[in-house]
Write a structure and sequence with these properties.
single chain; 2 domains; SH3 type barrels; 43% helix
Length: 119
């Protein structure tokens, strides 16, 4: 008496026609996957390229290069060893020691200095 026609039809129709579970999941996940691909292509990949270029620039610093620090100070590298520290002359007779990671730009590359050249 309390059973309506809608309940009766749903009960008989559910057993006859199963729903497509896997296709429903794929349709729901497709926009999320599309957003992940877009974020990767527009944000993460260019950022990785910039970081790689910055690391290559910092590794190629040598004596005689004109550099700009992250604080905006421009100076000439007077001592560059393979470690983290650089010695930069920011004015005549004024030398400061900087961490290599604090260099934001290399303005001009100098010719390689030959220390073994006889004077």
């Amino acid at each position: 008496m309390f059973v309506t026609q809608a309940y009766a039809q749903a009960a008989t129709g559910a057993a006859a026609a199963p729903t497509g579970g896997m296709t429903d999941i794929l349709v729901q996940l497709a926009p999320i996957l599309l957003l992940v691909v877009i974020f990767y292509m527009l944000i993460f990949r260019p950022q990785q390229k910039r970081v790689k270029a910055q690391q290559a620039m910092l590794g190629a610093i040598r004596r005689g290069d004109t550099v700009v620090t992250t604080g905006g100070i421009v100076g000439k590298v007077t001592k560059a060893v393979d470690g983290e520290d650089l010695e930069v002359e920011i004015a005549t007779g004024v030398k400061v020691k900087l961490v290599r990671g604090m260099i934001s730009d290399v303005r001009s590359k100098a010719e390689p200095v030959n220390d073994n050249k006889p004077a």
